[in-house]
Write a structure and sequence with these properties.
Chain lengths: ~325, ~280
């Protein structure tokens, strides 16, 4: 009886392979193989419409690390991401604190969430072309408004200024993503055990103290999640800077790493080998930074937890 | 007295919160408002002055736009075809995978799960050069196959549906159905899929929107203008033939945005709830 039952279980479990097979197959063909192929191409000299290539060792890696344009794209990507992320997480946290504060009963929370998140759903390509037209020179709506209110004497050519152009890209990224970050952080705060806040209120804590001592430490895993996903997305930024100006103008100041990869492969000489090399470097950059972030956040979370536990023990 | 003072303090704070939130709401709405207004104004009006009031030139702008080869309806159909196919494949096969991982205990299951968790972290754009060369070698560029079929392996969706099954699907259903003589695939189709419906709807929206908004992949793979998707058409508006036709440009952008805005306004509560569940971020 026992043996028979076991036999039957094993037979059913074999169906598991059948159920996951399409996923595995599609994963191998469309994800794993292209990654391996990209790695392979980064060690070759494949370019143009050729189909044959030679192996060149680490030559491409040496060349790319001395390539002005790649280094510039690397810097640009980081600058734009940081300038977008700091206000994004700051405002999202502030809003999340406000909207979850039990003492401040707000109306229309649902409406605000929907309005804040709206830009995220819109096609990034359309948003980029829209902002490119809004900031147009000499008679784009922004210039018209600024002149109407007397901020500007004459129209300003935003896309000739490196600072303004980078600022606009960072602003669009901020604008599209702060709502999402805010909603995720709010969900995180609502998931914190309410009895912690009740106890703190009994002890006479102010809402600022509760935010610093309870909310922020317990929100760390979700903040880390937001940080890492935003970073991964930011390092791959393409649609907005690619369509906002032509050729990453002015002076390649908004050329990102993905734009560099795209241009190497699909413009001019079609240097697939160089595009592949840049892709591999991008992968390593993302992996290294993610690991560093996880380590840093994890050790700090552990520390605070230990301290809290000791404190609780003393009490 | 204490209460009164605290009350006015919170009153002030509440006004401040509403003010900041109101400004942010305007920030979300105004760019689109200007867009829709300018889509109805003539290029001369747009260049002369700023206005928040719609005009009457939408029809004229439409003629200018379509007169220069901007085939928005074709783009609409193309984007829709790709997004619907990719979403259906993604949902069906993700559900199948999630079900397989939850119901059966087979060798290598944990390894597969670890692989899924890992590729969640690996960005797709890393492999785009290899992906493009592979499609070129297979003669599949300028077809929709590379835009649709990779959706079968959607780790984020599998992850989400697995969690959903673990919390909402009683495994006893499976043994009961087996006793009744149902086939394994039949149990999946007739019992698991209906239970998964809410989860499928959530992931379906996000998969659809992501596919609809996808720009880089079709830009690499599609060169035949008849096969252009909406985001690719938008890019044409930056070309020189539209250089000074601002009315037409605004109308073109507006037309690519309207379908998404309508969908968002209908499903917004659902979408916001989906975002709160985490896991979705580009």
């Amino acid at each position: 009886m026992m043996v028979k039952k076991k036999h039957k279980l094993v037979r059913y479990d074999k169906y598991g392979y059948f159920f996951v097979a399409p996923f595995i197959l599609a994963f191998l063909i469309f994800q794993l193989y292209p990654i391996i192929y990209t790695f392979q191409l980064s060690f070759t000299d494949l370019a143009g419409w050729e189909t044959e290539f030679n192996y060149v060792g680490f030559k491409n890696y040496q060349a790319i690390l001395g390539n002005e344009l790649f280094l510039k794209a690397f810097r640009n990507t980081w600058i734009i991401w940081i300038v977008n992320f700091i206000p994004q997480i700051g405002i999202a946290l502030l809003l999340a604190k406000w909207f979850t504060d039990a003492r401040v009963k707000l109306k229309g929370v649902g409406f605000f969430k929907i309005a804040f998140y709206m830009p995220n759903i819109i096609t990034a390509a359309s948003v980029a072309v829209l902002f490119s037209t809004l900031f147009g020179y000499p008679s784009g709506p922004i210039n018209q408004l600024l002149m109407y209110f007397g901020v500007l004497e004459e129209p300003f050519e935003f896309f000739r200024s490196v600072g303004a152009t980078r600022g606009i890209v960072a602003f669009i990224q901020f604008w599209m993503w702060y709502g999402s970050t805010f909603i995720i952080l709010t969900a995180g705060i609502l998931g914190i055990n309410p009895s912690l806040y009740e106890a703190a209120v009994v002890d006479g804590a102010t809402s600022g103290q509760m935010f610093r001592k309870i909310t922020l430490p317990l929100l760390k895993p979700i903040t880390l999640y937001v940080l890492v996903t935003s970073l991964i997305g930011g390092m791959q930024m393409f649609d907005i800077p690619f369509l906002l100006t032509k050729q990453g103008n002015p002076d390649y100041s908004i050329e990102t790493m993905t734009m560099f990869i795209y241009r190497q492969a699909f413009a001019g000489g079609r240097n697939y080998y160089f595009a592949a090399t840049a892709s591999v470097l991008l992968l390593f950059i993302i992996l290294i930074v993610s690991v560093i972030l996880f380590r840093a956040m994890k050790s700090r979370t552990d520390e605070t937890n230990h301290r809290r536990m000791r404190k609780a023990g003393r009490r | 007295m204490e209460r009164g003072r605290l009350g006015s303090f919170y009153g002030l704070k509440v006004s401040w919160i509403y003010l900041v939130s109101g400004v942010l709401v305007l920030l979300s709405i105004i760019p689109f408002w200007i867009l829709f207004v300018n889509a109805t104004r003539s290029t001369e009006q747009i260049q002369q002055s700023f206005s928040m009031i719609p005009s009457i030139y939408a029809g004229y702008n439409y003629d200018v736009l379509t007169g220069r080869g901007f085939n928005i309806w074709r783009g609409f159909i193309n984007s829709f075809t790709i997004a619907v196919s990719a979403t259906s494949l993604s949902l069906y096969f993700s559900a199948l995978t999630a079900y397989g991982l939850v119901i059966y205990n087979f060798k290598g299951k944990n390894f597969i799960f670890a692989v899924i968790a890992f590729i969640l972290m690996v960005p797709t754009q890393i492999s785009m050069i290899g992906f493009y060369r592979m499609m070129l070698n297979l003669n599949l560029t300028d077809t929709y196959i590379p835009l649709i079929f990779p959706a079968i392996a959607a780790p984020a969706t599998v992850f989400f549906l697995r969690q959903y099954l673990l919390s909402a699907f009683p495994k006893e259903f499976v043994s009961a159905a087996r006793i009744d003589g149902a086939s394994e695939l039949g149990i999946f189709h007739r019992i698991a899929l209906p239970i998964l419906k809410p989860g499928l709807a959530t992931m379906g929206i996000f998969t659809f929107v992501a596919s609809w908004n996808n720009f880089l992949m079709p830009l690499m793979l599609i060169s035949d203008e008849d096969k252009y998707t909406l985001p690719m058409l938008v890019q044409l508006l930056r070309a020189d033939i539209y250089r000074t036709e601002f009315g037409g440009i605004y109308l073109g952008i507006a037309m690519t945005i309207v379908p998404l805005l309508i969908v968002y306004l209908i499903l917004s509560k659902f979408i916001v709830a989906g975002v709160a569940l985490g896991g979705i971020k580009g």
